[in-house]
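tool_call: predict_structure(chain=1)
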Amino acid sequence: MSEELMEVFFPELYQDISIDVLKKQYSKVKKGYLKGHSGNKIPDFLVVSEGDWDKTFFMDSTDAWHFHTLSRSLVLLLHSKIITRESRELVFKHVQNWCTWNEKANQKHEQVWSGHTVALRLDFLLLCYCLADKNQVPFWLYSSITKHVEYLLNDENYDGNWNHGLDQNIVLLKAEFILKSWGIQDKIVRRIMENFNFAFDEEGVTNEQAILYHHYNMVRFSYVLNLFNFMGVCESVGLGEVIKKASIFLKYSLVPNGKYLPLGDTPYIIPNFNLIGSDLNEHYNAIMMDKSYPLTKVYKRGYVFGRSSWEQTASQYSIRFGPARIIHGHNDHMSLTYFSKNRMILMDGGFGGYQKTPYRNFLQSPLSHNVVFIEKAEKFLWNSETHLMTNLSYKDKCYYVLLDEPYENVKRFRAIFVDIKKDIFFIVDKVISAKEEKFTQNWNFPGNCIFSIEKDYIKIMDDSSIYKMYYHIALNDELEVSELKFHRNKNGLKILGGIVGENNEKYIAVKNLRTHKTGKNIFFSNVFSLAGDISVIDENDFSLMYYDRFYVCIAKSTLDLFCSIIDNKTNIALGNENNDIIRHEIPIAATSKYLLLKINLIKKNDEFCLYYYVTSIKKVKLRFGKYYFVENRGSEKIIFMLPSLSNGDIEIELIEMEKITSKGES
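tool_result:
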């Protein structure tokens, strides 16, 4: 085969890998050891004779998949830097050993002939075919390739429109081009394009709901683009532009320290960009260096990303919404994450491997994410899409409202106001349920955080910072700070909290801050911030936050957002020297349609009134020292019914609010 074909079809042979690493691996295989995977905690596997492959029947799925692809254990011996006749023959010996075992074995792990394993193994068999002496291609190799192709051509074995199906299509396309035996190129190209159009939307975001697999699909379709261009396939038009958009999504989905944001089945690691072809790598590097991109980005497949800058010292947040959980996604819809000072602070549940264990069940569940859930319900409904109802901006601040129905007859709302440059989050959760349930709001914090309960907030301290979580606790509500939490039921061990996944079978301890509320109509109000002076007030019909001379109000009924920097205070003396009750009216002098009104008593005698009225809030007695939301109709008045011989001094505080729309205007 030509050198050009080898570079296009098998780019893994030309990756920049240390010669010492390659030689070390070569030495291991000469002793019979097939390469495991340290990151995935897969030990090396000793194969001296074909019978040793029987041992894979007792391996877990990840380990069996790894070794039965053959490529993941042997491909380094064929790397362009070290390949020799001896190394090639050593690889062929192991491959033939596997083929002989496969023909004879009666008991095989399910991964041996699982669709994705077959695709990756066929790719390696094709590589061996291309490296064989053309006049002496072993019959066993050609026969095995034929069986693999026939298996993948059976529509019952096609994994469909996600990355496993893509890998199957890629290797079939390569097999047809190399061997020209089946006449399937048009069919496979058509399937690849169907896969592509299903996997990526017009914004360049994949459907797999995990950052790692977005990256994987991006790399694989870049590889497809190279194959199409080499083969002269005209369908390559359009692939390149979408892949460039996919690169921009990846830029947003990395935290400022360069690691993946661990959403879905995504480890918290620095991506391996060596897997990207040189053209795409150059393009991606240009995107990464470009600091002109907007600091906030919303993708309709279910991602909100925001950051304070494009510097490595930036703070960053993410919010999940969109289609119900599929493929590599988790039950993380409405979850908020926060990265600051080079570490995750509000942490996602993360990823700990694919093995079906209590850990994986927990990390996929709502209980491991920063959301409101019913603890006894293990999953959200499979068809529960989370809708982004509101996406507003106001003076470099952002506001989002989300809605879904994660359980039968339960509606869940979440409103999030973000001032990321000040590291402030204002969250209002609203739940409407047909029946009374116990709802839990969860927040994951690093395990080394120390919690201290203050008067109206929880102080959270780590090695370098102090944060505050303001909260509202009503009668019979429960507040909990917990570490590892689990119980055993008839189905075995069930983890309830205290860990997140960092990588395959690698878990780290976290602390959960949880508020439990029971009822049909539930509200949670929180402000989370880097330590600073913030005032938070929670009333029946709104929640209010004040910081840096700036008011933020969220109406609980509609979750509309109101903001203001206008705060007028007026002192007035009131008195009634008559022997009868008199009505005293004070016109509200304000132009804004929406107002927050609070009247404070400065001093009074015993006869002075205990409440007042506002014309638009008819027949409702309003108390002193409390904020009220008033819709100003232009002729609003404050009314006092002053008893005889009463007097008092009052302070009228009037905050003129602006209802924020998508343009930041009222």
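agent: The chain is about 25% helix and 35% strand. Proceeding to next step.
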